[in-house]
């Protein structure tokens, strides 16, 4: 039998190299190569290794129409917000990576999920971080029926897979992947090579047996899961659990999902009995200002399948640096730089000597371009130290030539804002309904940035 060989994998981009070197040829990152063991290819891969059906024997050509029906066996997890982010329930044989800061509630969420899955499925919770007594204690506090739940405190992947092969769980949780190691490698647990190899074995296990596997991953300081790209390639879905420290709200976001939309959000609130779903989160990300405040603008975002009202805050201040700072939290940094250039050219406000900080309240990330207009309104409001009029909401994409472009689902966004008592909406002309108001809300349709700014103040 062919022997296992070593190779070197880049922790940034996942590229594989046959020998060690200081810089990754693929992505150019320095000091990111780590040793891994590559198993020999061996015999041709059987159908059971690649398909979900779990049938043995060599692979055969099949008409896709007959396969599609069984491709996705989904089951509800019993937690609606989690199902939503997963794309409509848990897929059998899928591998889901849940990342997030330590203490954000990853273990709590998964334990609660096993609780709600309850008697319907067999769950196995593998912990490499806590003792079984701690897990049981938490389960009790969460009010989960523990009699149907199996748990294992183990970090060796060989032993975990051995136990799992006997226990045959439907859902396997590994908390956390950074603690798991294989005897085949000498590298320390938590290193890229150990994490990658352990994850690869778990992925293989999931595909071979049809078990749904959840991997918990702690986020590193740089914001990625240790060996980030490497794991992202291997799993079916990557969900990030986010939230601001001090806030009890938590947002679960699909960063990659082979079985659903990637911009879907699930919202939870952490309480003394664990995580509670927030099925109607539309207004929880607004901070309650007693009076209109300079540097604040409210937008209606539509991440995923429902509208959400969020507040964008900006602080614009005289810079003492030659290179003024541009900091965007919850938004894309490059987009902010571009928007400031548009503001200069088409809005007549020069902020080149100002530090600009922009933040989306509540730890939410807004990735859609509908945030462009509210970002500029917040920036200008701070720059001029003039609050936007009370109960104003805005959305719209801003183009390089200062035009305001429409965004999807305009009417739905407007209705949501009207429901929450907003009085004025500044929106792209193409998104405006024929009527000039919805309920109590006046609609100001704008075509150009200049028009939007004069409509706002
Ligand atoms: P945990 O799930 O252990 O986080 P992670 O696995 O992501 O590291 O969550 C721990 C935090 O949640 C901790 O700060 C305590 C808090 N918590 C509650 O507020 N209520 C609860 O019922 C539970 C179980 C935890
Ligand atoms: Mg944990």
UniProtKB/TrEMBL annotation:
Residues 355-457 are annotated as: Lon-protease-like. The lineage of its organism: Bacteria, Pseudomonadati, Pseudomonadota, Gammaproteobacteria, Lysobacterales. A motif (RadA KNRFG motif) lies at residues 256-260. Belongs to the RecA family. RadA subfamily. GO terms for biological process: recombinational repair. The gene is radA. GO terms for molecular function: ATP binding; ATP-dependent DNA damage sensor activity; damaged DNA binding; hydrolase activity; zinc ion binding. Residues 71-219 form the RecA family profile domain. This is DNA repair protein RadA. The middle region has homology to RecA with ATPase motifs including the RadA KNRFG motif, while the C-terminus is homologous to Lon protease. ATP binds at residues 100-107.
